[in-house]
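Tokens help. Consider this.
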Amino acid sequence: MTTVYFKALEKGFDVQTTFLRFNFFGHDVRIQWYGVLIAFGFTLAVLFGGRMAYKWKMNLDKMIDVLIGGTVLGVIGARLYFVLFHWDLYKENPMDVFKIWEGGLAIYGGLIGGLIGAAIVCKVRDLSFLKLLDLCGMSFLIGQGIGRWGNFTNQEAFGTNTNLPWGMWSQTIANDINSRAFELAAHGITVDGGSITDKAYVHPTFLYESIWCLAAFAVLYWICSKHRKFDGQIMLCYGILYGAERAVVEGLRLDSLYIGSTNIRISQLLSAILVVVCGALLTALLIKHKDDPVLPADLRHYFVTEEEEEVADTVEDAAMQPEDAAMLPDTPTEDTEA
């Protein structure tokens, strides 16, 4: 547990890092809030995806395969990305690589791994990868927006000093800054850790990203409902919105991954490239499809085969018949008196 203070408030707030702790056959087991919040964000993203899949009458069996493949490779990718750029933390104790509950998951690694996993399953299960991406783009933002609060419970992913009212400080933050003072100075970053009597507040960058991701989700949902003209449009919008936010906020963070001994932040560079590439593709494709009608809200035909669509239509017609019959006026039959 750590006590977190905000500049605009005098009172501190106790923040627990452990959600549940118990003994299991002599082993001390801890479930961290970090993992709980990541799982909660993931669950909300899956529930949203499931709801959209139901609305669009997607093949749920195939979608579950995509979910499993994308999740497994997503977690592996997120961890590998982090470990590769922080190998000094693990070379003495390689088994620590598997302790993901202690943190150390890189979002870009997760996205790359998850998309690779989804692409493989789409290829095997004969699903349109580009069309699937439109659904994933919105779901990603839900998971990211909620999952970022795991950084808050761990008191990590914070930024440089600030005098803004929402600046935060904790002893955990101060200890981290002080322990990495030389490392930060090597990258040209000067930051004060402060003390309990002279707090040096920092940017809550996790909060910036959380708010941005949830707002971006609302924007993408609106675009998907009203202005989607081609496959992949929502994912391109995701790349622009998320990339723009990350390119800015990454410049405030103190835990960035760098390219070698340079001061070039990897995530900031990737974000800038993502914005430029997605922006160029989106512009070109919108011009190409400018005269095309907006795609309908019922996108069933994008995710099922023609045979499956015919079956779905038959089931719908059968389900509607009782209601339709009830709405028809009474008509005489042979057994009914005129």
